[in-house]
Design brief:
This protein is α/β, with parallel strands linked by helices. It has one domain: LmbE-like (Rossmann fold, 3-Layer(aba) Sandwich). The protein has nine helices and eight strands. Strands 1, 2, 3, 4, 5, 6, 7 and 8 form an eight-stranded mixed sheet that branches.
Length: 263
């Protein structure tokens, strides 16, 4: 079974490209192998929640909404030079709480019921540990859960747990495009915290690949902003602001190392 230098753990089909795509392309350009595991890419079965029906309509899909989104992801990862792997866990809009109610009730508001979902975190963490065992990466990358999205938080916590159990360094990317509008960082699970931020400066070719990869997620562009050109412009402008101390015109992506609170 093939080994990979870096294991990227993404909540959804588009998060890795949006938030870390330039860095993934840079790693590939450097000859590093990158496995992008999208945990919450499972194929749901009806009935669907009101939230799911709402987003299916926005995406322009019928009941089989995840299969075409997987195809978008395959195209995006090819552009970035990464290997995609789609997990079988369900997106939050398809999940139920322990009492049988929908986890996310509202359609447009995505209102959330209180549910810890410890079993989901444990299951995703175990899957990540199996991937680490099978592919021997030297580091793990995942999201920061910057805006408190339940899926981002669950996958982040699972990746931190798995990375710690395997003795691997874990870094968190800035969830984009949400980080452009908010700096509402959720605390990490004890006893971990964020270290000092690091900006990965991306090469021109890698940044171009990121924007092309983002455009591959055609179904998501209307929800992300004002179409392909709009989200690309937003990411480009923000990338320049992150790399403001580098050469003029450089773009960067912000990441944080996960550190033990006692360190």
């Amino acid at each position: 079974m093939a080994n990979f230098d870096v294991l990227v753990v993404s909540p959804h089909l588009d998060d890795a490209a949006l938030s870390f795509g330039g860095s993934i392309a840079d790693l590939a350009e450097q000859g590093k192998s990158v496995l992008v595991y999208t945990a919450l890419a499972g194929i749901p079965q009806p009935p669907f929640s009101p939230a799911a029906k709402f987003f299916h309509n926005i995406w322009g899909f019928g009941d089989d909404a995840v299969s075409p989104r997987r195809k978008e992801d395959l195209a995006a990862m090819k552009v970035l030079g990464a290997t995609p792997l789609h997990g079988n866990y369900l997106d939050g809009i398809y999940r139920r709480t322990d009492d049988g109610n929908w986890l996310i009730e509202g359609a447009a508001t995505r209102s959330l019921r209180r549910d810890s979902e410890f079993s989901l975190i444990e299951a995703v963490s175990q899957t990540i540990l199996e991937l680490i065992s099978a592919h021997s990466p030297t580091s793990v990358m995942t999201c920061s859960a910057i805006i408190g999205h339940v899926d981002h938080q669950r996958v982040r916590d699972a990746a931190i747990q798995a990375g710690a159990a395997a003795g691997l360094p874990v870094r968190l990317w800035e969830d984009l495009p949400y980080g452009i509008r908010s700096q509402n960082y959720l605390p990490l699970p004890a006893p971990y915290t964020r270290g000092n931020p690091i900006v990965n400066i991306c090469g021109d070719a890698s940044w171009t690949a990121k924007l092309e990869a983002v455009a591959s997620y055609a179904s998501q562009l209307s929800a992300l902003g004002d179409g392909s050109a709009g989200i690309q412009d937003s990411l480009d402008h923000y990338g320049k602001s992150c790399a403001s101390t580098a050469d003029e015109g450089a773009r960067g992506e912000k990441v944080w190392p996960v550190v033990h609170a006692d360190q």
